[in-house]
Amino acid sequence: MVGNKLLNPDKIKANLKTKRIGKKILVYNSTSSTNDIAAEYAVNKGNDGLVIFAEEQTAGRGRNGSKWIGGRAESILCSVILTKINSSSELLSLATAVAVAETIGQNAKIKWPNDILLNGKKTAGILLESKTCDSHTVYIIGVGINCHQKEDSFPPELRTVATSIGIESKNVCDRISLSKRLLYSLDHWLETLKEDGTAIIEKWSELSTLLGQRITLVYDGIDFTGNCIGVDPEKGLILQLDTGGVRMFDAAHTSILK
Predict the structure, then answer these.
(1) Strand partners, 126
(2) Alpha-carbon distance 120 to 108, whole Å?
(3) Rounded distance, CA 178 to CA 250, Å?
(4) Rounded to whole angstroms, how far apart are CA atoms 152 and 154?
(5) In this predicted model, what pLDDT tens digit does every residue of 29-59 receive, in sequence order?
(6) What string of DSSP letters covers the chain?
(7) Sheet holding 121-133, edge to edge
(8) The Cα angle at residue 111 between residues 99 and 82, in degrees rounded to 5
(9) Residue ranges in the chain whose pLDDT is less than 70
(10) What does the alpha-carbon distance between residue 238 and residue 228 come to, in Å, rounded to a whole number?
(11) What pTM does this model have?
(12) Are 94 and 233 in contact (CB under 8 A)?
C-alpha cells in the first residue's frame, strides 16, 4: 500500500531533476530533530543542498519552542542545508512557504510566516534557523508536512486547528512522490530567489490568507491590530494600523493571534 512505504533516498532521488536541492539525501529512522542533525552537517560548506529526512522525531519543534507532533511514518519531516546563499531570512522564508504550499496543492494557503493551511487548518510548518560557520552564515530549512494523520492522531486541543493531507483529500498520499515534489519546488524557488525576489513576493501574495485581512498580532509582547497590506522582503509583514500609520513586523518577533 502506497501509504505504508518508508522513505528511501534512492527512490526520492530517482529522476529528481534539480540543480541544487537533494543531490545528497539521508534518511534517519528516528532522530530528535532533523534540524539538529542538519546543523552538524552544515559545518561542511560542501553539504550545500543536503537534505535530511526522518521517519520519526522525538523532539521536533516549531517556532517559539512549540512542539511538532507526529507518529512514525505519518509525515514528511526534513531539513535542507544551505551553505551558499545570499538572501535575507525574510525572503528565504517566503520562498520556502511558497514551495511548500505549491507541493501540497492548489487548495493550500500560506499563513505568515510559517504555516501552510488546508481548509483553514494547519497541515505544514516551516522552521528556518541560521548559524555562523567559519564566518559565513548557514541556513537550515526545517519542513514538516502532515500526511497520514487521522483526526484522533492529534490531541483534543489541536483537532480544530490541525489537519493532514489524508484527512482533507480522503486519500492516502504517496510520501515519496510528495518528497520529490517538495525538493523540486524548493529548488525552483531558491533558483528564482537568485534572480527575482519580486516573483516570490507576488506568488506569496497570491497564496496568502492574510493579505487584505484585518488581523491582530503580537510583537514583542504588545498587541497590534490593522489591515495586512503587504509583505516587505527585508522587514516582514506590513500592517495599516487601526490606530493610524503603517508598520512592519519581522517574523522573528511576531506571532499572529487572529
Answers:
(1) 143
(2) 9
(3) 30
(4) 5
(5) 999 999 999 999 999 999 999 999 999 998 7
(6) -GGGPPP-HHHHHTT---SSTTSSEEEES-BS-HHHHHHHHTTSGGGTT-EEEES-BSS-B-GGGPBPP--TTSEEEEEEEESS----HHHHHHHHHHHHHHHH-TTEEEETTTEEEETTEEEEEEEEEEEEETTEEEEEEEEEEE-S--GGGS-GGGTTTB--HHHHHSS---HHHHHHHHHHHHHHHHHHHHH-HHHHHHHHHHHBSSTT-EEEEEETTEEEEEEEEEEETTTEEEEEETTSSEEEE-GGGEEE--
(7) 25-28, 51-54, 75-82, 136-146, 121-133, 115-118, 108-111
(8) 40
(9) 1-4, 62-70
(10) 6
(11) 0.92
(12) yes
Instruction: State the residue for C-alpha cell 506569496.
Output: 204
Separation of alpha carbons 14 and 255, rounded Å = 39
The domains of the chain, with CATH numbers, are 2-207 (3.30.930.10), 214-256 (2.30.30)
For residues 121 and 185, what is the distance between their CA atoms, to the nearest angstrom? 22
Q: Please state, in angstroms and rounded to a whole number, the distance separating the CA atoms of residues 103 and 184.
A: 9
Q: Which three cell numbers stand for residue 139?
A: 541556513
Give the residues across from 140 on adjacent strands: 81, 129
Note the residue count of the chain.
Answer: 258
Matching residue, cell 507576488: 202
